[in-house]
Amino acid sequence: MAARLESLEKAAAMNLTDPIFQDADKARAHLEATRWPNGPICPHCGVVDDATRLPAQRGRPTKAHPEGALRAGVLQCNACRGQFSVTVGTVFESSKVPLNKWLLATYLMSSSKMGYSAHQLHRTLGVTYKTAWFMCHRIREAMNPTSKTPIGGAGKTVEADETFIGRDGNFSARGGKNMNAVLSMVDRGTGRLRSVVLDNVTANNVTNVLGANVAQDTRLLTDASNVYRRMGSALAAHESVNHSVGEYVREADPTVHTNTVEGTFSIFKRGMRGVYQHCARKHLHRYLAEFDFRYSNRVAVGIDDSARADNALAGVRGKRLTYETVSRRWPAAEARIVW
């Protein structure tokens, strides 16, 4: 209890009046400290902490800036002579939105348990809805882990379950006719959550997803669905509860249940229906990454709001997402609104 109170006090220390949310230079310094704790890393040659900071540089002339906009925070690598800044090679690259607004948007999305809508963000930041919508998707991309090592392991327990949400005219399955299928896995030991959009709920699809995301020496807990049997037999142990007969917790062993992963479905669906309201199937994986990130970096595992936002900033590297990519039209059947 004391540790939780201390964590909440630390979270309260960062608020919306923090200088990094008001001043672009302070925001840049914070991002540099987060991305480069051991000194600047040249994106051209990879040399660490061997760069010279240059005065503000003029960019190319444009209609809005005939003399060229000032580029602050430019560094020059002493090894390869290439110029770069802290936003190069990140989801922030080439953005005209000031860095302090980017950091504020990241903090708001990281600290809001049910999510933060693009409409609310555009009113809060004073940007257009189109800009806010694109910012949200780029931040979700940063929240999506680059390296997805298997969860679980020796002596650890993973709960897995599927859920159905929204509408999809191409999909029909048990319990979810014309709905999008999502398979989620939560590691009880580390608290990490991982969710994947399924094309269809079949034994093959479920086995492939579990095989790629769960370590083989894991104890797996599921419901009594047949789709888990094949993968369950390949793991260290597989136990299930039979919901159809009213069994939600094993009476002989109270650790056998799927209540944890089902609780994450509650958070996800409340956020999607109450905050976001609309989501195309092609974007569903990014929304899942957002909710997975917040759950895996919650106060219960010792991560407060400011640390969670910094974890999101640490994930911006190597993730370019262009507006053309995120707004590209899918075939009509694939672009249906989820709700």
Describe this structure in words.
- Strand 9 (219-223), helix 7 and strand 10 (237-241) form a beta-alpha-beta unit.
- The chain has 339 residues and is of the alpha+beta class.
- The chain has helices spanning 2-13, 24-35, 99-111, 118-125, 129-143, 203-213, 229-232, 259-276, 284-296, 305-314, 323-327; strands spanning 51-53, 57-58, 70-71, 75-77, 83-84, 157-165, 180-187, 193-198, 219-223, 237-241.
- It has eleven helices and ten strands.
- The strands form three sheets. The chain has a five-stranded mixed sheet, sandwiched between helices. The chain has a three-stranded antiparallel sheet with strand order 1-4-5, with no helix packed on it. Strands 2-3 form a two-stranded antiparallel sheet.
- The model is unreliable at 332-338 (pLDDT under 50).
- Among the domains are: 41-85, no CATH class; 157-296, Ribonuclease H-like superfamily/Ribonuclease H (Nucleotidyltransferase, domain 5, 2-Layer Sandwich).
- The chain is 36% helix and 13% strand.
Summarize the structure.
This protein is an alpha+beta fold and 339 residues long.
List keywords for this structure.
single chain, 339 residues, alpha+beta, Nucleotidyltransferase, domain 5, five-stranded mixed sheet, three-stranded antiparallel sheet, 11 helices, elongated, disordered C terminus
